[in-house]
Specification:
This protein has about 300 residues and is an alpha+beta fold. Helix content is about 45%, strand content about 20%. It has two domains: about 140 residues, Arc Repressor Mutant, subunit A (Orthogonal Bundle); about 150 residues, Gcn5-related N-acetyltransferase (GNAT) (Aminopeptidase, 3-Layer(aba) Sandwich). It starts with 5 loop residues before the first helix and ends with a strand.
Length: about 300
Amino acid sequence: MKGIESEQVAAIREFNRFYTARIGLLRRRHLDGEFSLTEARVLYEISAKPGTTALALRGVLGLDAGYMSRVLASLTRSRLVQQRASKQDGRERLLSLTASGERAVVRMDEQSAAEMRAMLAAVDPSEREVLVAALSRARQILSRKQDPAVRIVRLTRATKEAAQILEEYYEAVHVVQRDRPGVLQKMIDEPASGVWLTYLGDEVVGCVVLRRLDSVSQASECKRLYVKPAARGRGIADKLLDAQEEYARSQGVEWIYLDSYDDLKAAIALYERRGYERCERYNTNPQATLFMRKRIVA
């Protein structure tokens, strides 16, 4: 329609996406079309960030694991989304759109643009710029947030939060040998051992465990290092390991050992960068294929 600039349509459409993503109408059909609002949001997010993961999408959209799994399964069956194993981290599936998925996003964009043009057509031309500027400003204000500070906390007692993030870690890495109930508090209380959590604001986003290694003199073992995908890129893993090593030194620990497996390339690169070196097998973990250690006392 004449007089309605593409920048105006883009601003209104962006505000509309921002608003509908926050009003909680997750089961209403998007644009009265073939997709629910949740499905449309998932397609938009994957289109904007090819290679994202289900965990990352859950963080962005605020959905539980079961619901996200069902949505992705439906979109995959419909050949709109494809999943492939990460070469850097075998525990994650990378998501991207198929050609059909990309066409679906284009259709939704075109339909959204048409609706926004119709909306603007009902507004007096002299007021369109004011409206667009006001909505753009509203979006900026509503989406602005301060980056919460990262806090590393060593636990003095087992908590529900600790159990929850450890359970998320077990599921993400498909751990077979899991800590039994009561073991968490034992590791908190035992000398040369401990449990650390990372907080972003009030949310727990990372963890690491230190466990005394009885089979090796003056040694402990680094276990359960995990950072939620949505919180990665902030140096949280390094902060957790720094806190762990500082405490281990205070306890007279000379060596920290760890085990991993070959598919976890990002984790292995992190350990190597921090001075861990490969060593002989020191435990009976059936999943481990790689063993490392670091001397933390000169």
